[in-house]
Amino acid sequence: MNPECKIELFKENGDIIEKAHIIPYSDTKDNSFENLIILCPNCHTNFDKNSAFSVDDVKKWKEIRKAELESFFSKKYDSFEDLKNAVVPLLLDNKSIFENYYHEDTKDLWDIFEGKILSNNRILRNILKQNLKLIQNHSYENYSNLAIVQKFLLHIDEFEATRVNEEKIRRVLFPEEINSLFGIEPLDGHFLPSVESIESLIEVLQNNGQFETIVLGIDRPYIQIKKKDCISERIYLNDTPRLRQIYYDNNCFRKVNVRFESLNYALKVIKSRGLEFEFVDINNLKEVIVNGVKIVFVYEYCLSKVKLLQFSPEESCVILNLHNWNGESCISTEAYELAKEMKVKLLRMDEFYGFINSIK
Hints:
One of its GO terms (molecular function) is zinc ion binding. The chain is of the alpha+beta class. The protein is built from 13 helices and 12 strands.
């Protein structure tokens, strides 16, 4: 746009925008984003036919407009949710363009729409760089959402730098984890270790009136929540970047006492035998009832007498030590003796299969 032009481009019944080629299309056959500018009809005519403005003038207009837009899209947000609302439409637009036009038989269309991705990427870069503090971070890169965002920013830079290359060989590909982080498409990742973190999240969701249910004992366990528009949504517990961010936003990271992957596996064993389980308390995922038997899950390298006393188990309950890396030594002799006095049953994981079969 000509910064000196005062004509309103947007009217009630539409717009009067015209796309102009900075360097004539007849000379270059260049329809790229870099060679296009938006002008009103008068400025377009004065530039093309009357030579009222030079190519350098028009390029400067574009740079001015670019700076204005970058300033506009450099807002700092108060929460990740606000950031997400700004970022998601741009990511979805890019995703749609890529999926529809990145094919051999649509190369001409891709060459046109690739410029739209470039424009969206520039906005995304400005937004994200201004709001990095809202992203969960960890000193270990594999545990860090900030590392994912930084990789995405590298991808944006490389995408722009290599756009004019015929081969378009790129070393930093689009990180799919970005779509997980911003809730666009769940990632089939790994489980975060702490059961206690999930319990903390359930409490937060309950307090916010969002919690509906949690489904465990399946390959892709999930928490089902109610969004503001009353639509139910699943948060998959192996959608790692998204869950990390949710924990971070809600201060739900907790020390690991029981590993979630081990707990979910034990619950899968129960279901595989045609049995159902119910939680004694939804805020305590480590205790379930199966066919009238209470099972308490613990995760101890060696379940000792002291630890058993700390658990204060009820009579007739079963305590399963999910930590079975050291075989029979995962439960001490003293703990077995105390369990008899307490009238509780202690099980190792290798004994659990037979026990579940016995209570069918």
